[in-house]
C-alpha cells in the first residue's frame, strides 16, 4: 500500500448502495444485503454481543478498505445519546445511562462509520479500517469519566483485538482539551503516518480533522489492564482450583487444632481463599438496556 492513497471517486460511486457525498466522505445506504456480503468475507463478528441495536444507522461509510486496523475514541460533548441527525454515526456509542453503562451499536464492524471528516482527494479516514466509538462525555472534563465506562471500553478493546486484530497499543499523545483542538494541535498525524498506523488513538489524532476530542483520555486504563483483569485460561483455572483445595485442607487442619496457628493466620487463609474464588467466578453480564 502506498504512503498516500487518494480517494477514488469512480470506484466509490460504483460500489453498491452509494447515495452521495458529504464532508465526512461517501454516504451509503445501510442495507442487510451489503452487511451479509461483508460478513461473508469477514474474519470477525460484525456485532459486539454487549451492545444493543436499538439505534441502527440508516446510512454508513461503505466498505472497509485494506488498511492496518485501528480503534478510535470520540467524545459526544453531551451526556445523552445523540440523535446523529447529520448521519455522522460511529460504530458504537457508550456511556452511563440510568446509573449503568449502556452501549449501542449503530453500524456493523464490516462497514465504515461516518464520524470523521474526509476531505475530497485526501486520505481515507472513516474507511481506513477505523473502528469508532463515541463516549458520552465532554473532552474538557474527560477526567470525570466513570470507572464503569473505562471498564466497558477496556472490555471492548480486548474483544476488538480478538475479533478484528486491533492491537491494544496507543502510539500517540492524547492532549487535554482545548489544546487538542485544531489541525495544528501538535499531535495530529500526517497523511503517511495515519495510513501506516495500527492501534488506538483519538479524534484529535486524525488528519483532515480539527476536533480535539476525547481530550486527555487515560488510555492506559483501557489498553493496559492489571494482571487481575486479564482473562483466565484453562491452565490458570486448574492452578487456582488446586490452590483453593490446598488452602481449604490447611484451614481444616487449623480448625481441628492439629497445628498451633494464630487467629491471624486463620484470617489470612480465609482472605486468600476469597481472593482466589473471586478470580475463578466470572461476574454476570450487565442487564440489557430496557
Which key features would you list for this structure?
single chain, 290 residues, alpha/beta, Lysozyme-like, 5-stranded mixed β-sheet, 7 helices, 29% helix, 14% strand, disordered N terminus
Give the SSE layout.
Blueprint: H1 9-14, E1 18-22, E2 25-29, H2 32-41, E3 59-60, E4 70-75, E5 92-97, E6 100-105, E7 130-135, H3 147-164, H4 191-196, E8 199-202, H5 219-223, H6 234-255, H7 263-280
Parallel strand pairs: 4-7, 4-8, 5-7
Antiparallel strand pairs: 1-2, 2-3, 5-6
Helix pairs in contact: 6-7
Class by alpha and beta content: alpha/beta
The sequence of SSEs as H and E is: HEEHEEEEEHHEHHH
Report the biggest beta sheet as strand number plus sense, adding barrel if it closes.
Answer: 5 strands, mixed
Molecular shape = elongated
Helical content stands at 25-40%
The CATH C-level name of the largest domain is Alpha Beta
Question: How would you state the average pLDDT, rounded?
Answer: 85
Assess the beta-strand content as a share of residues.
Answer: 5-15%
Rg from C-alpha positions? Answer: 23 Å
**Tally of DSSP helical segments:** 7
Number of structurally distinct domains: 2
CATH architecture of the largest domain: 3-Layer(aba) Sandwich
Which residues form runs of ≥5 with pLDDT under 50? Answer: 1-6
**Measured distance between first and last alpha carbons:** 45 Å
CATH topological fold name of the largest domain: Lysozyme-like
Q: Tell me the total number of β-strands.
A: 8
Strand order of the largest sheet: 6-5-7-4-8
Amino acid at each position: 500500500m502506498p504512503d498516500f492513497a487518494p480517494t477514488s471517486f469512480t470506484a466509490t460511486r460504483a460500489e453498491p448502495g452509494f447515495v452521495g457525498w458529504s464532508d465526512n466522505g461517501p454516504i451509503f445506504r445501510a442495507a442487510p444485503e451489503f452487511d451479509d456480503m461483508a460478513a461473508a468475507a469477514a474474519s470477525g463478528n460484525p456485532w459486539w454481543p454487549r451492545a444493543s441495536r436499538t439505534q441502527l444507522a440508516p446510512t454508513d461509510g461503505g466498505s472497509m478498505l485494506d488498511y492496518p486496523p485501528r480503534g478510535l475514541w470520540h467524545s459526544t460533548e453531551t451526556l445523552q445519546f445523540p440523535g446523529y441527525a447529520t448521519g455522522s454515526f460511529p460504530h458504537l456509542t457508550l456511556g452511563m445511562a440510568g446509573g449503568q453503562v449502556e452501549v449501542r451499536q449503530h453500524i456493523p464492524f464490516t462497514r465504515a462509520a461516518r464520524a470523521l471528516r474526509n476531505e475530497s482527494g485526501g486520505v481515507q479516514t472513516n474507511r481506513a479500517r477505523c473502528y469508532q466509538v463515541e463516549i458520552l462525555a465532554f473532552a474538557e472534563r474527560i477526567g470525570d469519566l466513570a470507572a464503569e465506562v473505562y471498564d466497558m471500553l477496556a472490555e471492548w478493546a480486548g474483544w476488538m483485538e480478538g475479533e478484528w486484530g486491533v492491537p491494544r497499543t496507543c502510539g500517540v499523545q492524547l492532549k487535554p482539551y482545548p489544546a487538542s483542538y485544531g489541525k495544528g494541535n501538535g499531535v495530529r498525524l500526517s497523511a503517511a503516518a495515519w495510513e501506516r498506523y495500527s492501534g488506538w488513538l483519538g479524534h484529535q489524532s486524525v488528519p483532515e480533522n480539527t476536533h480535539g476530542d476525547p481530550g486527555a483520555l487515560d488510555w492506559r486504563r483501557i489498553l493496559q489492564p492489571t494482571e487481575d483483569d486479564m482473562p483466565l485460561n484453562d491452565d490458570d483455572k486448574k492452578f487456582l482450583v488446586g490452590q483453593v483445595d490446598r488452602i481449604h485442607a490447611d484451614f481444616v487442619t487449623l480448625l481441628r487444632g492439629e497445628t498451633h496457628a494464630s487467629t491471624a493466620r486463620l484470617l489470612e487463609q480465609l482472605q486468600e481463599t476469597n481472593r482466589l474464588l473471586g478470580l475463578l467466578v466470572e461476574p454476570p453480564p450487565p442487564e440489557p438496556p430496557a
